[in-house]
Amino acid sequence: MSSFRDRLKTGQPQFGCLITYPLPGVIERIGSDWDWFWLDGQHGQLGYQDLLALVRACDLVGRASFVRVPGHDAGTIGMALDTGATGVIVPQVHSADQARAVVQAAKFPPLGDRSFGGRRAVDLHGRGYAATANDDTILIVQVESPEGLAAVDEIAAVPGVDCVHLGPDDLMLRRGHPMDQPHPRDVVAGDLDAVVGACRRHGKLSAAMGVSREMCDACVSLGVNLIASALDVGFIAAGSADASRQARQIAQNSKHSK
Q1: Is residue 90 within 8 Å of 140, Cβ to Cβ?
Q2: Fold designation for 2-257
Q3: Annotated catalytic, 43?
Q4: Is the pLDDT of residue 240 over 50?
């Protein structure tokens, strides 16, 4: 964890990959390509045992792991951190009050109210792990609504919030934008600029999606710290489509040559 914190201090963008399927072997295979992994316990097909295995795979290849939890429940946030993950990503944070409640769940006293006793944390680091856990673990809150964006400066100012992530899909959905259409680039760029600006004013990290070349370029240009640049289903879908086209083209060419 501390080595990832050190890498963040360099100011260089750290590129991450989203994992939505319960396949720790994939992380073993591609881990060296990425700086960190987003383990999607909200929208992915992952249960607790899957998340635990994926965190262990990240540890094996020496990469940071962030578990996105499905909501603000303190028990769920604590359980995700008890896997030994580098941090948690908490969705749908719309206000500073919600951010403070999330800090209570993710940080140990006196900053928060996280329960002590994570089995894996104790096994790996001993009972003294709580002394440095508040600094070692990274709490990322997602701003994903017009209300959250309007309050982003207040959210970034909350002690214990380490990073703010712009969630463009939910934000655009709540503005009435259809999900099967490209997001207006100028609008998303303005939203991203607002989040990055708030994070800089309060000395916090910023995070965003940068899967497309255009969004990745915008993230890098604005100085976003954690950029989620790929996802497992994208690799699978693109590789499958390419292999299928190639096989069918070979068959077609063979048919014509006879």
Answers
A1: yes
A2: TIM Barrel (3.20.20)
A3: yes
A4: yes
